[in-house]
Amino acid sequence: MEQEQRALADALAARALIEAEERPDKAFALAVAARRLVPDGAGESALLQLVAGTDSTDRFFRIDAEPTTVAVSPSGSFYAIGDAKGGLRLAEMGERPGSVAVQLGGVVPHLDFIDEDTLLAGIGDHRIVEITVEPGGSLSRGPEVSVPALQAWALNRETGTLVVGGSDEAGDAVVALVRTGSDGLRVDRSTTAFAASLPTVNALAIDESGTHIAVAQHHEFEVLDASTLQPPARARPMSLEAEAIAFRADGAIVAAGNKVGSNARNGVLVVLSPDGIELGTIHLAQSANNLARCDKLMLFGTRAGEYGWVSDPLEATRTTGDLAGEVSAISCTGTGGFVAVAEGGFVHVRTASPATGATAFPVYFSDDPQPLPERLASAGLSAGLDGLRAENGTVVPFTQGVEAEIDTLLAGVSPSQANCLSVALGSFDWYWYGSGNSDSEEEHLLGRCGHTEIRARGAFGEQLAAWSGDEKLFDLGATGLVPAAVAWSSDRSRLFVGGSLEGILYEVTDKGEPQELLRLPSPGWFWAASFVGDGDVLVTAVVFPPSYSMEVTLNVIGGLPLERLACRIAQGSLDGTAAVRLLDTAEAEALACDPLT
Fold first, then answer.
1. Does residue 182 have a pLDDT over 80?
2. N or C end of the chain: smaller count of CB under 10 Å?
């Protein structure tokens, strides 16, 4: 019976790879069926190949202007970019932005879709212009209206209400309500009834019903009645100087910016109740300057070029991309797609959630102890007054001053040979790397973890491979990294390779080449790394030149299990697929995917 099951699983897996191009839903169904029949057989290998083949959701472009704003259409079918020269361009999701389709005559700091066919563009000289998307994708200018200020912006598509704010010509903080509709644009009302000591509006948000407006002024916020624009009796204080603000679906408010009294590198996201009670906090390595909400999802961006999802309960998840420059604007879809634009003309388009389903939840530590996500408890870690304590008694302190003890710290958390502290090699030949002067067959040792070595080959060190003594374990290909940090999980199912500005997490099996799970961007250089909790938590040490200060980060690795992920990609169940017909009724019933939320 066991041989028959294995033979059937092999047949299902083989058929899955044949069906992959024409019928990906059927292919995933077949691979899931094969894996459930024989968990360690050909089905797992087929699933990994199918998932890797769908991980082409990211596109990176560069435009010939400085992007200042971006908006994704309600359906997620296309996106628009405004730039510092007044240009506006349109493209389908996943496609390269084209040339300027319409010139607006001034910097475009804000942009939003009212519906699939209509855009609103805010111009730096306090004008709002309506733009029509014509058949074929061309853009044409429509009516426009002048507003008293245009530093902050928030749109409610359902009610057609736009709220804008900033400082007017008299230097007073001002908020104005703009109505959209068949009769064009009109300024409904405006108000300057705010704290005289805070004469500008940093950020605005409008709730789902369109009845309440949140106004952030540095380290205070107010909630206005949208029908009257009247603020409450007093402003609510915040523990941050806000640069962006947004309403969640449950009515809570998310504010992004810098912690009050801190330097620009200490970014923070805070969730607030409408009456000012802080419900949760995320500490980031850099100031958060952007928020975008799409359905139940919310995306943030930072001045360091990082961006990620804000989840509930409050945790920050980084994406697999990093634009390596200050994020100018972000816009997202309700299904995990987004567009992020940054200085230097960079554009990152993600058409859907990454196929691997893997995520990293970075937990940053400052001078004050911070609460830990509940998921850390399952990794055998606990929070004390002095830091994070592992089961073996080793403590990761809540401090950034760890230069002298980092080797002992990380090696102590993960003392096993398989799960070790990586070694940064002092003999690394920096002149060779990237010079093109090396023999293409010459190998250079870049990093070591126990018996595993990461070696580079090629004129520019572009080909990486993992070795154990004289045995080549596998190729990592052209990663673009100069690795200094290498770490294995204790069961050797995960490998982390980190270098300048980025690290890569791999899933490793004996069924083929390692599969890239996700990339971790960093504003510095990954210098050391170690896994704890059977690979559920990755501890990294990052160096920041030119001062070479060091920061410890705990990255909690999450994501969908492989089989559940395949079901999600296949969108539901195996009903009606070849997998059901190849199995008898009793087996087929057990193969249906679990309900997805």
1. no
2. C
